[in-house]
Amino acid sequence: MAITPEGRSAPTLRDVAEVAGVSFKTVSNVLNDHPQVREATRVKVLAAVEQVGYRPNLAARNLRLGRSGVIGLAVPELSQAFFAQLADEVIRIAAEQDLVVLVEQTGGERERELEALRNPRLSLTDGLLLAPLGLTHEDLAPDAAGRPLVVLGEPLFPGPVDHVTMQHEAAARAATAHLLALGRRRVVLLGAHAAEDTGVAALRYAGYRAALADAGLPVDDGLVVPIETWDRQRGAEAMGRVLDAGVRMDAVFAMNDDLALGALRSLQERGLAVPRDVALVGFDDVADGRYTFPSLTTVEPGRHDIARIAVTMLRERIDDRPRGDLGPRVVAPDFRLVVRESTGAEVRARRA
Amino acid sequence: MAITPEGRSAPTLRDVAEVAGVSFKTVSNVLNDHPQVREATRVKVLAAVEQVGYRPNLAARNLRLGRSGVIGLAVPELSQAFFAQLADEVIRIAAEQDLVVLVEQTGGERERELEALRNPRLSLTDGLLLAPLGLTHEDLAPDAAGRPLVVLGEPLFPGPVDHVTMQHEAAARAATAHLLALGRRRVVLLGAHAAEDTGVAALRYAGYRAALADAGLPVDDGLVVPIETWDRQRGAEAMGRVLDAGVRMDAVFAMNDDLALGALRSLQERGLAVPRDVALVGFDDVADGRYTFPSLTTVEPGRHDIARIAVTMLRERIDDRPRGDLGPRVVAPDFRLVVRESTGAEVRARRA
DNA sequence: AGCGCAGGTTACAACGTTGAACCGCGGGCC
DNA sequence: GGCCCGCGGTTCAACGTTGTAACCTGCGCT
User: Fold this and answer.
1) Mean per-residue pLDDT, A4-31
2) What percent of the residues of chain B are helix, what percent strand, and what percent coil, each to the nearest 5?
3) Which of A61, B285, B314, B346 is the most exposed place for a label (fewest CB within 10 A)?
4) What confidence tens digit (pLDDT) does each residue in A128-180 have?
5) Do strands A330-331 and A336-338 pair parallel, antiparallel, or not at all (unpaired)?
């Protein structure tokens, strides 16, 4: 209950009713525009609402209706640009649908992702959008049934859980194909995950292999660079090691933009020209890649659609909850290869 | 009320009580660990809690206590790296204090910032952290009294509102002084706001002027470039115009990192070497500036402290609400000039 | 033996809201 | 003229929790 500095507690339906001279339930009826209200009383009540500055108490409404209008969004961390932009979209779209978003950070750690699923602090949300990095099938299974849930990422679990994912393989294939179409033949792959046969890294790796196969090229294991955590620092370091080892290559496909931007720095630091000496493609279309020099060619994974679909699906789950006759769904929106300067789109250097 | 797919509704205190063979209030007493509970019943109750899988209903608790444990955070947009990193810190610190964060985006528009202050959707938060761009004194005044509020940004309003801000002027002065100490004499200022005498832009401008004055240099209006919206694109465009106009200069102080990174691109695009030809300093210490080439010298405004102080202050406001005897506070944590390659810190180009 | 007292547990009320059931009243229909 | 019905509104109960106060039991004290 909000208490004003003067010590008055926030006005309730009863206070409005008193001013309007009707029962408090009539005020409720007006506000929920039930039909059975005479225009005259409606006006009278609305005036009273205005006068006392009434605001509905959402906690009470929430208790009564079993709905809060709040959804949870659990991401690894907002300081990763991709997730920040995703959260931006999710919040924006949720607002359009009169939902509000409670953001939780998991650090990508399995333990904390599990906690996000179970956390009682989240029990005042109607449902959860979860972008997990560490979870596995088994983790999701026991909790899946609990509350409305939509997972952002590749399907971990064939159970009753909606997934909104990306066309990882097709997009990685297109990105690699783009490099090959430029005549590049030795394409470094940054970000492979050792001993992972499902998951984002594996899918993108499969796309890379497929594109090479399409071009009749073998996979050179010497060009496949494993990096567990996809951040800029590690991208720069890995690229640096590759260069210092004297590996021959003419292109880089980084599994995300952060790796790509780190790699870009390492390339430039060593005096290599991008795209002349090495062409570079990333993945995610993070804003940072648009104003680097050269700007970064990347895959736009359909972030806007992902956010829209995820919120919509979650809402459907929430609305469906009493019935529960909605099957699990998996959607992967269209992606788009955004060609910029790092693969030779109009390098606009002027006086250089 | 959470309904499981099987149609069972979530267990309540009553369900636990029935299993444990005590009254539901005793269960409540156990869970809130009131002293007056025999160890034997405590154990019995906890076992029952476990057995039925009880989770407290936060909506009910919230209604009863008038507290939700949720705080609101309203920022312009998360896709701006500075705010994403700020949100990251706020969520992290809030979690430490058992608070959870509801994030709202205002787009930096006055209208929507006002709405964030008043929005009933936020009435289930205990208080609000607001990072406004468009608000003015008059806007804040009437609403300030409503609910616990901490404003992130320079003090707009001398009323009963806490502010956590930055040492804009001192930091800008230090940044500019740093450039002057390198021997630069013609320092372009990117991001001035026309006709603004208070506000972030004005304060940073004042710091810039002060540093010049310290060095006995005049302010050259031809070097002061107004940019209303501080994003990369506009930074790049403005820098481009300055360069194309043939303005003589040997350094740039951008009012934030986004402007700086945009400017960096324009400089490089035109074949100018940073820092050799032009030294460059930004403001905010956004992650992106760490792995550009050259990396970006910038002001770290004490983001971590800002987040910590803001959350703590808000909590104090919330706790103080019944009494209301807390005066308004203004805090500006220490900043730090982070010297990187764009002003000549160990340019590590190797083969170049 | 009776009384008070404290420890342990319980009943009751309340937080503010909404859905269901109910009531009085006037008008239309038979 | 009596009955039914719909309109406009009301009363009642409930959502699940916690603070207050009352309750009961057994024990120690006088």
Assistant:
1) 81
2) 45, 15, 40
3) B346
4) 999 998 877 667 765 555 689 999 987 766 667 899 999 999 999 999 999 99
5) unpaired
Beta-bridged to residue A149, according to DSSP, are: A128
Beta bridge partners of A192: A226
pTM: 0.91
Give the helix/strand (H/E) hosting A103. Answer: strand A100-105
Using the Cβ of A3 and the Cβ atoms of chain B, whether some distance falls under 8 Å is answered with yes
Q: What average pLDDT does the structure give for chain B?
A: 89
Q: Does A88 touch chain B (CB under 8 A)?
A: yes
Burial profile B88-112: b = 16 or more Cβ within 10 angstroms, e = fewer: bbbbbbbbeeebbbbbbbbebeeeb
Instruction: Please give the structure tokens belonging to residue A90.
Output: 């999710």
**Would an 8 Å CB–CB cutoff place B55 in contact with chain A?**
yes
Amino acid B311 reads: V
| CA A335 – CA A37 distance, rounded (Å) | 51
Phi, psi (5° rounding) for residue B331? Answer: -130, 140
Span A30-53, pLDDT tens digits: 998 888 888 888 999 999 999 998
Beta bridge pairs of residue B188: B252
How far does the CA of A29 sit from the C1' of C25, in Å? Answer: 20
Neighboring chain B residues of A262 at a CB cutoff of 8 Å: 291
Rounded CA-CA distance B284/B267 in Å is: 20
**In B, residues 196-225, which contact A (CB 8 Å cutoff)?**
none
**What are B139's two structure tokens?**
């806007």
Do B270 and A352 meet the contact criterion of CB atoms below 8 Å apart? yes
Question: How many secondary structure helices (H) and strands (E) does chain B include?
Answer: 12, 12
The answer on pLDDT for B349 being more than 60 is no
**Amino acid symbol at A263:** A
Give mean pLDDT, residues B127-148: 77
Residue A137 has which token pair? 């099938």
Phi then psi for residue A242, to 5 deg, are -60, -45
Interchain proximity B56–A232, CB inside 8 Å: no
- Nearest CB to B352: which of A88, A102, A271? A271
Show residues of chain B in contact with A59, CB under 8 Å: 59, 62-63, 66, 68, 123-124
Domains of chain A, with CATH numbers? Answer: 13-56 (1.10.260.40), 68-166+303-321 (3.40.50.2300), 168-300+338-343 (3.40.50.2300)
